[in-house]
Amino acid sequence: MNIGILGSGNIARTMAHTLAQMEDAQLYAVASRDRARAEQRAREWGAQKAYGSYRELAEDPAVELIYVATPHSEHFANTLLCLECGKPVLCEKPFTANAKQAAELFAKAEAEGLFLSEAMWTRFLPFLTTIRRVLDSGAIGKPELITANLGGAMEHIARMREPALAGGALLDVGFYALHFASMLFGDDIASVTSTCTKTELGVDRHCGILLTWTDGRMAVLHSSMAAQTTGTGVIEGSAGYAIVRNIPNFETFHVYRNHTVTASYARPAQISGYEYEVRAAMKAIREGRTECPEIPHAQTLRILGWMDALRAEWGIRYPFE
């Protein structure tokens, strides 16, 4: 399938390098708002075409799927452009800056019969199936608690600092902790308690979230744009606990009883991990679907709704909202 990349930053580079190693997909075109930059990226990444505007990419009849890899604040406008040009879209996470934008895009895609999905790669990883299977087997008894974190020293990055670019820790890294809890405990949330500290420009610098499920289970999540965290997820149960290293792209999964490792699992060989979302998108398109079962539209809207509520509690509103 001919894939076009809309955007030319680091995450676009990772996708380009992934596509270069896939046998069932190819990077056909890359688009940037700067033609010289697009041409440079096309040479560097091995794309056949380079476009100096996003519209040119969206209007190319040979493009079969567009991967949107621009900053969070631009996802809505960029994805809408692609849909208006009749193109299926795999949009980088978080899908949009808020649930209202996402709902509008999903309604447009459904009306046009076009595929549209959030590129939340963690939900497509085959290792997730292993983790769920082990937990369901009773390896740690009944899972009761989750702790998860993700963060790094990123205050120097403009898109993290700027409210106009939907900056802050939550949308960039806290997002992963929320999805981790959702993937393992589900979405039947009874209550949410949270707090954050803010930067001088008013976006969240550190944030802490406490989730309670209707059945009494709990999760404690934190994220940061100023501190390097362990990036781990811990699931604690009635008979033991399990630790997942690297919650965006699971590397290892260790099961403990009496503080002793009883089982260990390692991530299967992969290109980057992005290949799974690409294959799922292509499969859905070929089957005539408008969404991926791994992350249906309702799931994207649910998590975005959680984040909207968290930001409302913190008094954080982006200028374009």
Describe this structure in words.
This protein has 321 residues and is of the alpha/beta class. The protein is built from ten helices and 14 strands. Helices cover 36% and strands 27% of the residues. Helix 5 packs antiparallel against helix 10. The mean pLDDT is 97.
Set down the secondary structure blueprint:
Blueprint: E1 2-6, H1 10-20, E2 26-31, H2 35-45, E3 49-51, H3 54-59, E4 65-68, H4 75-84, E5 89-92, H5 99-112, E6 116-119, H6 126-136, E7 143-151, H7 158-161, H8 169-185, E8 189-198, E9 204-213, E10 218-224, E11 232-237, E12 241-245, E13 252-257, E14 260-266, H9 275-286, H10 297-314
Parallel strand pairs: 1-2, 1-4, 2-3, 4-5, 5-6, 7-10
Antiparallel strand pairs: 7-11, 8-9, 9-10, 11-12, 12-13, 13-14
Distance between the termini: 36 Å
Number of helices: 10
* Element pattern in H and E: EHEHEHEHEHEHEHHEEEEEEEHH
The strand line-up of the biggest sheet is 8-9-10-7-11-12-13-14
The global form is globular
Structural class: alpha/beta
The biggest beta sheet is recorded as: 8 strands, mixed
Taken as a percent bin, the fraction of beta residues is: 25-35%
What percentage of residues falls in helices of 4 or more residues?
A: 25-40%
Number of strands: 14
Cα Rg: 20 Å
**Average pLDDT reading:** 97
Q: Which residue ranges are poorly predicted, with pLDDT under 50 across at least 5 consecutive positions? A: none
